Amino acid sequence: MTDSPRLFPDLDDTLLQRALPLLDDEWLQRDADLAPVLPVVLARGVGQDWHKAGTFRHHLVGVARSLTLWQQPSDVRLLGLLHSVYGNAFVDLVKFDAASERQRLQGVIGEAAEHLVHLFCTMSRAQFVQKVLAGEVQEDGSLQVELNGAAPRQGVRLSAYEVAAFAIVSMADTIEQWFSWQDEIFSRFPGTDTSRRQAVHWGASLWPGPMRPTARMVSQVAALGRALQHPALKGQLPLPPVFDGCQQALAPQHEAAASALYWSVVQLAQPLVDLDAATATLEQAVQLNPWVGEPQMVLAQLYLSAGRGEDAERAARGALQQFCTWGNAWDKRVQWDAWVAWTRILLQSAAQGSWPERLDKLNNLALR
Predict the structure, then answer these.
(1) Best label site of 71, 108, 195, 213, fewest CB within 10 Å?
(2) Are residues 229 and 278 in the same domain?
(3) Which InterPro entries has this protein been placed in (predicted)?
(4) One domain for residues 11 and 58
(5) CB under 8 Å to 344, separation ≥6 — which residues?
(6) Could you report the per-residue pLDDT of 212-236, keeping only the tens digit for each?
(7) What is the pLDDT of residue 6?
(8) What is the pLDDT of residue 1?
(9) Which residues share a beta bridge with 86?
């Protein structure tokens, strides 16, 4: 008898209804705050620039989507849409010249949002993450960080609002872009070893690599979320719904093990005649990391294949809940909207007590 009732969270219908409109590619054009800005960004060629697992446009829109799902105010959502347009220490994608075009961008998004964008691009983001994770946020919520540039670097004191905004945008930024290729080239971020030579580590450098989910960054996102429980930060902005409203931690060793277990199943490294080993492996993965949807979704399909309809329904609902908390995929082999769409098919099939017996019939499944 399965212990699946303990494995999977309940589905929050309010959160689901908030996520469903964001599945439509046109959601951004309907957004009153972001739609007027989109043509200005697209005119700078962001749809043609490579960025991590897609294009720069995919990345900017994905970050803004999570922030929209997390009900962030317009200035924070605009920061998400524009968070690298002045360039930064990580990416050389300068779409606006900070020396000459700040006023132009202010005219489009307003001074408050542009201030956040400029500061986020010009501060040391690695140092920001290091200090937040080290608990160096002051009693009043402020944080001293250095600006990018040659030593000696100029310092700036972030307000509590800026610290909260930058932590939340960093969470969305990380989950949107991070997969195994970045685990390799940016290993141990924010303490990346910059001495590693590409020619020596050529195997790790081949893009996009095996496209495994990250084995180390979800726990870091959880830690950033936990930092938002700081008394001076907690009321600054709506807390993202991930990790039970940023209340829960994820141990790095649990994340790594869960990722490996999940990958062993999807790469068919488990016995293929019976379902029991793959099912047990995924159940263990979910227990170790219950905060991402993909392992729960795959487990729902295994339950359906085994005729375990009630367990499949619980797993599918749990997967859908986690997808709706993130607004981005953990397993980036397919996009977030595709994961949600297949999960809804699994949930529908489990509720109806049906699942195709023939392989070709899997191609005919449709949401009713």
Answers:
(1) 195
(2) no
(3) DUF6817 (IPR049202), TPR-like_helical_dom_sf (IPR011990)
(4) no
(5) 316, 320, 367
(6) 999 999 999 999 999 999 999 999 9
(7) 63
(8) 35
(9) 94
**Which token pair is 84?**
């690298």
Same domain, 103 and 232: yes
The total number of structural domains that make up the chain: 2
Last residue of a domain, one of 182, 217, 247: 247
Q: For residue 33, which amino acid is it?
A: D
> Both 204 and 82 in a single domain?
yes
Distances from the Cα of 280 to the Cαs of 1, 257, 299, in angstroms? 12, 14, 9
What are the angstrom distances between the C-alpha of 191 and each of 172, 186, 268? 20, 9, 34
Tell me: do 206 and 270 sit in the same domain: no
Q: By percentage, how much of the chain surpasses pLDDT 90?
A: 84
Quick one: average pLDDT of 30-54? 90
pTM: 0.95
Burial pattern 53-63, b for ≥16 Cβ within 10 A else e, equals: bbbbbbbbbbb
Residues 85 and 230 placed together within one structural domain of the fold: yes
Taking CA atoms, 216 is separated from 97, 184, 203, 256, in Å, by: 34, 11, 19, 6
Any idea what the CATH number is for the domain that residue 222 is in?
Answer: 1.10.3210
Tens digit of pLDDT for each residue in 74-104?
999 999 999 988 887 677 778 888 889 899 9
Q: pLDDT, tens digit, for every residue of 99-143?
A: 898 999 999 999 999 999 999 999 999 999 999 999 999 999 999
pLDDT at residue 5, as a whole number: 40
User: How far are the Cα atoms of 35, 142, 266, 297, 323 from residue 272, in angstroms, in the given order?
Assistant: 48, 54, 11, 18, 27
Considering the domain architecture, whether residues 111 and 94 belong to the same structural domain is answered as yes
Claim to verify: residue 105 and residue 45 sit in the same structural domain: yes
End-to-end alpha-carbon separation of the chain, Å? Answer: 31
Domain containing 16 equals 1-24+251-288+292-368
As a whole number of angstroms, the longest Cα–Cα distance in the chain is 67
User: What pLDDT was estimated at residue 3?
Assistant: 43
